Every structure is written in C-alpha cells, then in structure tokens.
Amino acid sequence: TVTIEARDVTFSFGETQALRGASLAVEAGEIVAVMGPSGSGKSTLLHCLAGILVPDSGEVRFGDVRLDTLGEAERSALRRDRFGFVFQFGQLVPELTAAENVALPLLLGGVRRGPALRSARAWFERLGLGGLEHRRSGELSGGQAQRVALARGLVARPQVLFADEPTGALDSLTGEEVMDLLVDTAREQGTTVVLVTHEPRVAAYADREVVVRDGRVNAPAGVGS
Ligand code: ADP
Ligand code: ADP
C-alpha cells in the first residue's frame, strides 16, 4: 500500500521552477532516500509531500486523502497528527529543556503536560541521552541536539517521518549514530520515512534511492534500463 505519493507535481517560486512534473510513490513502512544535487528540488518535493507547500499542478496523496486540495487548517492538522519532521539544524526551542522540546508535538496534539513529559523522557535512555532531559536545548552538542530533534519527530508515532538533511550539520560518525537511531526506530514503529540527503553514505540506510534532477524524479543511474 502506498502511504504518500506525488503525481506529476509542479511548483514554482516566482520565476524559479523548482518542480517540473515530479512523481514519487512511497510504500507504507518504506524508507526512501531522495538524492540529487543542490537546488534540484529535493526540499520542495518533501515540502509538497508533507503538505507544507501546495503544488501549482499535479496531485499529492496521503492514503486516500488528496493533500493538494485540502485547506491550510486541514493540512496543518494532518501534519500534526500523522507526520513527524526532522530538519538539518534541529530547530529546537533553545529556552525549553530537551524533554520539553521532545514533548512539543504531544502538547500541540492536546496531550496534558504530565503524560507528555513522561512520554518524552522515555526516549532519552533509548537515544543515549539519559541525564540530558533537563538541559536547555541550547546547551546540547550538535549530535545531542539532533538526537533530541529525532525524538521530537518520532514521539507522536507519526505514520510518515520527513527528514531533510538530518545529518547535514554533523560529522560523519555522529551522523551515522543519528541514522542508526532513525532507521531502527522507524522500523520498530513501522514509520514510513522520506529522507532528503545529498550524502550517499546516508542514503545507503534507505530501502530505496531516487534522484531528483531539474525538478523531476529519476531512478538512480545504473538502476533499471
Ligand atoms: P534542494 O533541496 O535540492 O537543494 P530546493 O527544493 O531547496 O532544492 O530548491 C529548488 C529550487 O528552488 C532552487 O533553485 C532554489 O534556489 C529554489 N528555491 C527554494 N526555496 C525557495 C524560496 N523560498 N524562494 C525562492 N526560491 C527558492
Ligand atoms: P536545502 O538544504 O533545503 O537545499 P537551502 O540551504 O537551499 O536548503 O535553503 C534554506 C532555506 O532557504 C529554505 O527554506 C529554502 O526554501 C530557502 N531558499 C532556498 N533558495 C532560496 C532562494 N533562491 N530564495 C529564497 N529562499 C530560498
């Protein structure tokens, strides 16, 4: 079963055509790496799939739901209830503690503070962050912050995790630790993952790689005919 799909999607930023007929279907539970050169349209494709941007033409489907025809309020609710996000620079709230940052998606989803913080804290041991629950997120190392961001992306058990260069700001060893955790947790939870990266070592964690060039999606060179 397909979880999330873009069909012939176009999107322009003013004069810049970022997507020119991009199609990608991701199966439930699949981990797909979206590769391609800088500026090719990877992030824009991820934003269209995640209902952050609305395509100029084409379709985006999440199961039976047409994301491209939903209003902003409905897309926002869907993102909150079904999707998780991890970005290149964790984008944690520096004034909040690490545990409060992880708890945010639950709090936004209406879970009360006590239970939300308990769920959040349960992630810390498992991500090798035991003892850092009360640290302000501005006081974490890059690798720690990115693991906290990963926990925040997964805490509400999303059906789809959208990860945009989640290791882009990390050295390669720390990046591999984050990817190990991302992939292990996604598999455990059955979470579908759309992973944007330009690093082959990171893409190697995925079940499948696709390449975006000039706003379209291709199979990687050497695959198929
Ligand atoms: P990638 O993720 O592959 O680096 P992007 O999807 O970020 O590519 O960008 C695709 C194209 O759209 C690029 O030419 C980029 O400069 C342009 N672009 C992306 N975001 C914006 C924006 N907010 N405003 C204007 N142009 C943008
Ligand atoms: P990415 O790693 O996704 O390629 P970039 O560093 O290209 O990110 O862009 C970072 C942010 O700047 C994104 O939010 C993107 O939408 C925006 N952006 C990218 N290109 C442009 C552009 N030409 N004009 C305005 N904003 C842009």
TrEMBL record:
Which SUPFAM superfamilies did the record assign? P-loop containing nucleoside triphosphate hydrolases
> What's one Pfam family here?
ABC_tran
SMART domains from the UniProt entry: AAA
Could you say which residues form the signal peptide?
Answer: none
Q: Which GO terms describe its cellular component?
A: plasma membrane
The protein's matches in InterPro entries, at most eight in alphabetical order, are given as:
AAA+_ATPase, ABC_transporter-like_ATP-bd, ABC_transporter-like_CS, ABC_transpr_LolD-like, MacB-like_ATP-bd, P-loop_NTPase
- State the UniProt keywords alphabetically: ATP-binding, Nucleotide-binding, Transport
Matches recorded under PANTHER family: ABC TRANSPORTER RELATED, IMPORT ATP-BINDING PROTEIN
Kindly provide the name given to this protein in its UniProt entry: Putative ABC transport system ATP-binding protein
Species annotation: Micromonospora humi
